[in-house]
């Protein structure tokens, strides 16, 4: 009866009676050679890793979390992020003690979404990992607009000088984000962290466009 009132739909493909179907779950499985090193259009000066392309069920799940309030999809996305993080630790790309810093989100957007989904993914992904903590160390200043549809140059101008540190972090840092598109946010975030004397080892994203 509840399904008739609030019908369940898979967050990846829209299939009925399932929040996250097996077929879509398989698209988020992280292989032993993932995450892959990618080349962002704007180079943040540290390695950038992605778990997969921003397409298909991966894209639909991220959009559903950010734009439709599908908090139930955070666990599968966080599970993939966790595996990617474990691989980076195993490969020696990052080392403990490690602070995972979520990429900054506009405060009004976070309020509209019922919280910052990137931070929630990061906390879920890092839970229980020895020597790994999460710190919301960055925030965007006012006047940052939605970057959807902006060119690479416009994205860079939109974020330049508008990321600020709000919490001190020490030791090695891994910057995490849901999507790396042009790399503008990663560039500004890494710049701000470096300016504060923080060593950023890498960037890890759930998807790259």
UniProtKB/TrEMBL annotation:
Domain of life of the organism encoding this protein: Bacteria
| Record-annotated membrane-spanning stretches | none
CDD domains per record: PRTases_typeI (cd06223)
Report the family membership.
Answer: Belongs to the ComF/GntX family.
Please identify the protein, giving its name as recorded: Phosphoribosyltransferase
Q: Which organism is it from?
A: Mycolicibacterium pulveris
